[in-house]
Amino acid sequence: MSQWNADDERAILDSIANWVAKEVRPVARRFDQADEYPHALVEQMKELGLFGATISQQYGGLGLSASTYAKIVIEVASAWMAPSGIFNSHLIMASAIERFGTEAQKAEFLPKMATGEFRGGIGLTEPNAGSDLQAIRTTARREGDDYIVDGSKTWITNSGNGHGILLLVKTNPEAEPRHKGMSLFIAEKGPGFVVSGKMKKLGYKAIDSCELSFQGYRIPAGRLVGGVEGKGFAQIAGGLELGRINVAARGCGIAQGALQLALRYAQERSAFSKPICEHQAIQLKLAQMATQVEASKLLIEQAARKYDAGERCDMEAAMAKLHGSEAGVFCASEAMRIFGGYSYSTEYEIERYYRDAMLMCIGEGTNEILQTIIAKQLVARNPA
């Protein structure tokens, strides 16, 4: 449970807003266009405690609630979405270790993760398995006190500049149902853990999304999360709830940032002898954008409060992620129209918001898959 009160939360959010204004916003375009990893910002994020944001205070983290964490993500993403991905994947890994890891695993990894000394991510997606995680082919077979891992992963954030990942594998490929044969490991970089070059992307630049291959990678049995095989699918599913709240907040941040840019531009730009914000067509766009932002915040808060209370929130997190990500796409697109021709120039920030927004509809579960999750939960919670 978070030890922070409302005044503490306000102080934390004010410090993050100040950092975003002074350090993040001024460099976002340069790093994005150069597709260069922001090492200096990562060091600043360590100092701010962002890598330990949701890790319990007993392990050296800030122990923030998901609600406060989501507000931080919105603030960061409103200036530049990409940096929030650096600590999001890391904190999903930490959440799974804290919830399901052995006491030895928690004691060894969580303090280092809280300071950012050890930065991690999650290794789920494979070339043939995205939304259908049970279709993964990466395997781990027991050999003495170790497991031998063979297979590949793709689109893995933090795998280039990070120190390890939470690796989802099949320890029993023949198991039925398939999820009973899946296990989760804390995988540190070492021999057999091969990181390919950073993937070229439309948006979400500067952040390392890499392909990984495992060729006889040896991992100690003590790195099996929880110490029991066959629990990996359920363990990572719990962590994805926090991840979806984060992605919802990132989408909302994009929406809010795009609205702020469009609102300022609409007051500065004139057409037909008056600022374009006085034209009804522009007013309708601004009103719809603002409503999308505020509705997203409410859905995010609902999901975060349930998560903080330890209640099941897969439907609420899915709703928040669905709406928040679509709000990001909508607001970025509408802002592009408000900016008109200038929106297509890289001299204006808005084109980056437009490029970054679509990823939020795809990452942490596609919005199409999330709609099926929402529908199934609606039926299950409201039997005829």
Structural write-up:
The chain has about 375 residues and is α+β, with helices and mostly antiparallel strands. The chain folds into three domains: about 5-115, Acyl-CoA dehydrogenase/oxidase, N-terminal domain (Butyryl-Coa Dehydrogenase, subunit A, domain 1, Orthogonal Bundle); about 120-230, Butyryl-CoA Dehydrogenase, subunit A, domain 2; about 235-380, Butyryl-CoA Dehydrogenase, subunit A, domain 3. It has helices spanning about 5-35, 40-50, 65-75, 80-100, 105-115, 230-270, 280-310, 315-340, 350-355, 365-380; strands at about 120-125, 140-145, 145-155, 165-170, 180-190, 195-200, 210-220, 270, 275. The strands form three sheets. A four-stranded antiparallel beta sheet has the order 2-3-7-6, covered by helices on one side. The protein has a three-stranded mixed beta sheet with strand order 1-4-5. Strands 8-9 form a two-stranded antiparallel sheet. Helix 6 runs antiparallel to helix 9. The chain is globular and about 80 Å long. About 50% of the residues are buried. The model has no long low-confidence stretch (mean pLDDT about 95).
